[in-house]
Design goal:
The complex is a heterodimer. By secondary structure, chain A is mainly alpha-helical. Chain A is 45% helix and 10% strand. Chain A folds into four domains: 68 residues, no CATH class; 34 residues, no CATH class; 100 residues, Cytochrome c-like domain (Cytochrome Bc1 Complex, Chain D, domain 2), CATH 1.10.760; 86 residues, Cytochrome c-like domain (Cytochrome Bc1 Complex, Chain D, domain 2, Orthogonal Bundle), CATH 1.10.760. Chain B starts with a helix and ends in a 19-residue tail after the last helix. The chains are: A mainly alpha, B mainly alpha.
Chain lengths: 319, 245
């Protein structure tokens, strides 16, 4: 190192060297650390000691030091249903979560609106524009997180698999109460397979009859034979679909008299022959263990479910 | 010891560096071997995976699902609202290795069990965009086409038993499981019945919708459907789990 790059302090020997030299003349200065840096360092040491006192830190034996920091929160007591105030729980993220959930100052608007939803009847909610706006915005999020994967982002569903929730045609009933029940308990579509009971020409006849119910087919001799099967003991379709074919909400059986099809994609078929074939093959297979609407009572709170029911109800125009 | 002695003796310096840096690791890791108060007491509700679920878990790891999905719900308000109850240490106590993770290209899966039907899971794994049009998850069509290899299930369970997972081989271990988990579950954890249990669960539940074959899909869906379902949170006050942190 040439002499003229040394500063005055180094030249005058104020700064010491480490005392050893390599390769004959290679020496190392021990410059003092800048003062600001040192103070920052001492600061972090003090901080860490305070931290040990306030937060859970050192392991000791089978447990650990809990620290002196505390959290207060309010929860519902499962045994009595009343609220319990818990004071001075040692600080940790789980207690902090409970505090965030129970603190009145946290998200007061949402809490107030949820309480209103909980207290109001579906009709009252529908009449209150401010509440409906809340239901639409929160419902959209809940629906997106939990329902959209099956029923589609807008609730339009997939023919044959997941029902359309926007068409005002319901398997299990379209009142807000019924929808709430559907979401709470879940539903399981069931229709027996008729492939072994009915012969192919009988399946064909009953399909023709089903199509007359929604005016897709005109009355014919085949349809009359189908009617006998539908309304008689052989098919026994009336038992679930009703003698008028309008379906029974208590069984989740489809209304066969309207132009809306939940499972058999009739509108997509061009010829009557194709429509009949689709229905016949569906009736032969039936529905067993495939069309399952999961239960949500263990996943969503009763208020969330009620809010979702109102949300789903208004998707189809809210009639 | 002088500065110079260490600096001029690289073997000694290496040794001393190792000693210094291992202190940090030891302080953090060693206590975990004997602190058991952080594992919540859930009264035997969390059981090890059945043989079929275990194979499903292996496939989950093989396919790298963890590269996009975490399995740990953090105790934050937004996660609570979206996914449900935060994950407990007890819920992954039999996972080797655990699937917690922090990479969330897709949603957290810690509580996905029971959220969807088997049929949805099968369709979604086979072709995600057929149910979620905007999904960027890859298709896994081979799961439905590949027969499940369960020939080595006994070895897999024995290996896990060796790490402390309570699968049973001896009568004494079986009796212990009956006590902790009840007889029905203890039977499922019995390594001597592993193959029969696997075949029975796959046939009875027919997860993939094809009763004539036992495919990798059966196993993976069986695994997904049990995730996060073992602890019944209605039994515990919300404050109960805060004590374990």
């Amino acid at each position: 190192m040439s002499d003229n790059t040394l500063n005055t302090k180094q030249k005058t020997g104020v700064v010491q060297t480490t005392g050893h030299s390599w390769d004959g003349d290679l020496q190392e200065y021990t410059n003092p650390l800048p003062r600001w840096w040192l103070w920052c360092f001492y600061g972090t040491v003090v901080f860490s000691i305070l931290y040990w006192f306030i937060y859970p830190s050192w392991p000791v034996g089978k447990g650990w030091l809990k620290g002196y920091g505390t959290v207060d929160y309010t929860i519902t007591d499962k045994a009595t249903g009343g609220t319990v105030e818990k004071k001075d729980q040692h600080w940790n993220t789980r207690a902090l979560l409970l505090e965030h959930l129970s603190e009145a100052a946290n998200d007061p608007k949402r809490k107030e609106m949820l309480a209103k939803v909980q207290a109001a009847t579906p009709e009252q909610i529908a009449k209150d524009p401010q509440l409906m706006e809340f239901v639409r915005s929160v419902g959209k999020g809940l629906f997106g997180d939990n329902c959209a994967a099956c029923h589609g982002q807008g609730g339009q569903g997939v023919v044959g698999l997941y029902p359309n929730l926007t068409d005002n045609d319901w398997l299990w009933g379209g009142s807000t109460d019924k929808i709430q029940e559907t979401i709470t308990l879940g539903r399981k579509g069931f229709m027996p397979a008729f492939g072994a009971v009915l012969k192919p020409d009988q399946l064909d006849d009953v399909a023709e009859y089903v199509l007359t119910l929604s005016n897709e087919a005109k009355p014919s001799e085949a349809a009359d034979r189908g009617k006998a099967i539908f309304q008689g003991q052989v098919g026994g379709c009336y038992y679930c679909h009703g003698a008028d074919g309008k379906g029974l909400a208590s069984m989740g059986s489809a209304n066969l008299t309207d132009k809306i099809w939940a499972i058999v994609d009739v509108p997509a078929q061009k010829t009557l022959q194709d429509k009949k074939a689709q229905i016949a093959s569906f009736v032969a297979k039936g529905v067993n263990n495939t069309r399952i609407m999961p239960t949500w009572q263990n996943r969503l709170s009763p208020t969330d479910i009620k809010l979702l029911a109102v949300y789903v109800h208004q998707l189809s125009g809210g009639k | 010891m002088r500065h110079e002695q260490i600096e001029t003796n690289s073997g000694l310096m290496l040794l001393l560096i190792l000693v210094v840096i291992s202190i940090g690791g030891l302080v953090e890791i060693v206590p975990l071997f004997y602190i058991n108060e952080t594992v919540e007491d859930v009264k035997g509700e969390v059981r090890p995976y059945t043989p079929l679920e275990l194979r499903g878990r292996d496939i989950y790891v093989r396919e790298g699902c963890y590269l996009c999905h975490s399995q740990q719900i953090r105790p934050f308000r937004d996660e609570w609202l979206r996914y449900g109850h935060y994950s407990l240490a007890a819920e992954s106590q039999y996972d080797h290795p655990f699937q917690w993770g922090s990479k969330r290209t897709g949603p957290d899966l810690a509580r996905v069990g029971g959220k969807y039907s088997n049929q949805w899971q099968v369709q979604h794994l086979n072709a995600p965009r057929s149910v979620v049009p905007q999904s960027i998850m890859p298709n896994y069509p081979w799961l439905l086409q590949t027969d499940l290899d369960y020939s080595d299930i006994v070895g897999r369970m024995r290996a896990l038993r060796w790490t402390g997972v309570p699968y049973s081989v001896t009568q004494a271990e079986y009796d212990r499981n009956v006590k902790t988990f009840g007889k029905a579950t203890a039977d499922l954890l019995d390594i001597n019945q592993a193959q029969d249990n696997l075949l029975k669960q796959a046939r009875d539940r027919d997860f993939d919708g094809n009763p004539s074959r036992i495919t990798e899909m059966d196993a993976l869906v069986a695994y997904l459907q049990v995730l996060g379902t073992m602890v019944d949170f209605t039994k515990y006050d919300e404050g109960y789990f805060a004590r374990f942190r």
